[in-house]
Amino acid sequence: MANDKSSMQLITRGILSENPIFKLALSMCPAVGISTTVMNGFMLGIAVLFVQVFSSVTISVFKNLIHPRIRIPTYTLTIATWVTVIDLVLAAYLPEAYAKMGIFVKLIVAFAIITMRLEMFACKEPVKDSFWDGLGMGLGFMIGMMVIGFVRELLGSGAILGMDVLGFKPLLFFILPSAGFFVVGLMMAFFNWIEIFYKRSKGLK
Amino acid sequence: MMMPAKSKSIVLTALLLWFAPFLAQAEGLIVDQTFTGKNQITATFSAPIAKDVAEDIKNYTVFEESDPDILLELSSATLASDGKSVTLAFKAPLNTVKTHVVDAKGLAGIDKTTFRVSKSYLGYLFGILISALLINNFVFTKYLGLCVFFGTSKKKSTAKGMGVVFTLVMVASALMSWFFYQFILIPFNLNFLQIVIFIGLVSLTVQAVDTILRKVNPVLFNSFWVYLVLVIANCVIIAVPLILANNNYNIFETFMLALGAGGGFLLALYLMSSVSERMQLAKIPASFKGLPIAFIVAGQFAMAFLGFSGLQIF
């Protein structure tokens, strides 16, 4: 029972209180670059989730064999191996989605969030917890990407998952690549505003 | 004393040989040939030629030198009023980076005239530099390296140091990656290992720069080592080897790409830090403080950089 609770905590921590995109502000490149649709966000999210979970588990399994002085190169090589795996799998089975994501799949290897989780969590904690932590962080990233993709797709092209829902295009500007910065900036400001508002209302009570 | 002069002349001859194909002009009938616009080739002749021969598109076969099997389709051939130059228009835009070969039949009674159209190679290299620097700026149009970009663009001095270190590491690691890619990965068919090899090389370069700088110039090292730590696994640096492997660049192109990418990063950091210094004095709404306003400023820069797209110097 206790284990179930902690695994749930680990997952919700990755999704909410330590969300990689909105809270930690790490791995912003793909969040700005390719989050033009929900589908793009979902695909890259899956790739990151895969790499995060498998590298966390790998490092956690071998944590006692890794000499502390060479831990960072070890992390990098582990991540690079799993990125190669997902890169080849996506290129073979989902060539269209892979073409849309372009170089960003290969660049997962340089995502700060993955190295950070390995350094802060997986190299100390047991395998099971590392798995849940990796899953939570990966899901948090995926959900963040999908939320940005949702906003951009809905406001930019009036559609969700390629289906036209609004019938018009409120802010065509949002679909342009350079609008990624604006969308992420405005959404961060929006979340900050909610937080400030919430704190204020609590303080008044 | 003889040696330097001799080696100099060897280098010069080598350079001449290198550029000879680009400098050479087709002799005789054809005086000049250039790309005009995206889908036109203009050839100038030494003497006026007959209109009906020159304007018949069946008389021309055009292809890229590297793909002689793929013939490019012409839409029209127009002879100028003085009869001395002909403009060939194509159905699809030409890849003006490649050398194009034009075979013409029956011009001025000659059975077959062949000429090559190409841009100057130095101009093309310079084009890669400008493209990586401005048109495809890594930060503002490719959205790479944002973590470091937002992290270190608070002060101008930090931005400059960071940009210089990035450029150095980028050029060194790109050249090394090129050697590994051309002489190990391709010959042994190990292309699937590129991510592992490139990230290893980048970490190695950073480590090497760290060690060398520590011994050679301790003063510089003291001011730079903070940035070196940040460089290790950054997506801008790992992106350059991946791009050059994708495009199969040669060593000169690789150097120019790395230099342009590093310079572009330096430019972006410097611009952003200048704005950040001003923003510290500005009154920013509480919910926009910190990252949100930085993102919005970066968005405005990105829109300004859109203006560079379509820039063509050569």
Helix content of chain A: over 70%
Apparent shape of chain A: globular
Order of helices and strands of chain B: HEEHEEEEEEHHHHHHHH
Mean pLDDT of chain A: 83
Strand content of chain B: 5-15%
Arithmetic mean of pLDDT of chain B: 80
What Rg of chain A is obtained from the alpha carbons, in whole angstroms? 18 Å
User: For the largest beta sheet of chain B, what order do the strands appear in spatially?
Assistant: 1-2-6-5
Rg value of chain B: 25 Å
| Shape assignment of chain B | elongated
In short:
The complex is a heterodimer of chains A (205) and B (314). Chain A is an all-alpha fold.
Describe the structure using short key phrases:
heterodimer; A: 205 residues; mainly alpha; two-stranded antiparallel ribbon; 2 strands; 2% strand; B: 314 residues; alpha+beta; 4-stranded antiparallel sheet; 10 helices
Describe this protein's structure.
- The complex is a heterodimer of chains A (205) and B (314).
- Chain A is mainly alpha-helical and 205 residues long.
- Chain A contains 8 helices and 2 strands, in the order αααααααββα.
- Chain A has a two-stranded antiparallel ribbon with strand order 1-2.
- In chain A, strand 1 (159-160) and strand 2 (163-164) form a beta hairpin.
- In chain A, helix 1 runs parallel beside helix 7, helix 3 (38-61) runs parallel beside helix 6 (112-122) and helix 4 (71-93) packs across helix 6.
- Chain A is globular and about 60 Å long.
- With 314 residues, chain B is of the alpha+beta class.
- Chain B has helices spanning 2-23, 51-54, 121-135, 146-151, 156-185, 194-216, 218-231, 235-247, 251-279, 291-306, and strands at 30-35, 40-45, 60-64, 67-72, 74-79, 85-90, 100-105, 112-117.
- In chain B, helix 5 (156-185) crosses helix 7.
- The two termini of chain B are 40 Å apart.
- The interface between A and B is large, with 41 and 43 residues.
